[in-house]
Amino acid sequence: MVTQPTPSAATLLTVAPTGAESAKADVPALPVTVEEVVATAQDCERVGAAVIHLHVRDADTRPTLDLGRVREVVAAVREHTDLVVQLSTGGAVTDPFDARLAVLDAAPDAASLTLGTVNFGRDVFSNPWDLIVELHTQMQQRGIVPEYEVFDLGQLATLARLLDRHGPPYGGHVHVDLVMGVPGGMPGTAQALTACLPLLPAGATFAATGVGRTSLPVMLAALSAGGHLRVGMEDTLTYAPGEPVRDNAQLVARAAGLARIAQRPPMSTQDARDLLGIKPMEAVL
Ligand code: KMH
Ligand code: ZN
Q1: How many Å lie between the centroid of ligand 2 and the Cα of residue 53?
Q2: Beta pairing, strands 13-15 & 228-231
Q3: Which CATH number is 80's domain given?
Q4: 3-state secondary structure of 164
Q5: 28, 52, 195, 271: least CB-packed within 10 angstroms?
Q6: Which residues are near ligand 2, the ion (C-beta closer than 5 Å)?
Q7: Average pLDDT of the segment spanning 242-250
Q8: 234, part of any domain
Q9: What is the pLDDT of residues 29-66, one digit of tens each?
């Protein structure tokens, strides 16, 4: 059956401020310390973000899944913002599966869950079926809301199989992020985005992320199709040709402006929690 994504009157804005790929030495504006991540989170919340997708860095600015450090960052962002805290379980391409799963021990509100293996530039981002099922079922048991990351069309068929065999996610609502323009994944084009829509599960919402120079076309296509947006320095380091991104808030502010032009203004953090089915804070603390 062909389904249509659920339209929304407001736009859920997610910021992905850091990622695991860029080096602080190459990108001085990249937030990597706890203080920098908190300051970015506050700035981005102020200009319209409702969710933060977090990769954590160690004291040497390198990506880490060290649980103590991850917990510290989660607690700090929760203390200083109302943002929905979504931890990456994708990590870096070099991270082992057990460490990626262990991130759930930090009890975030939400976590990313990638639905298949994909070439990632010259690397391979590995996501075999057993890992997908383990992440999905552990999140169900722990009350963590998944955001299903889709790098290619076939991964939506995997989502259908996952939900069919293992039931709905915690919170009951399916939210997908189309990650587009990764070298090895689907291209960041309006055509590719449109091709994904009939494969979304009934009642699902979707966001889209365009990596690098596909950021703007993907944002415009997603807004026009009733979708939500993810932006940030994990995905985009150039604001315009030859112009480096100043900070994450600059990217969120641009997304918020486009969402307002589309008459689907940024969603509040409370509305984001309601949409995604996030556990109330009292249940977490
Ligand atoms: N860093 C990429 C290899 C996620 O956060 O879940 C994987 C990634 C996806 O960023
Ligand atoms: Zn990520």
Answers
A1: 7
A2: parallel
A3: 3.20.20.70
A4: helix
A5: 28
A6: 88
A7: 98
A8: yes
A9: 999 999 999 999 999 999 999 999 999 999 999 999 99
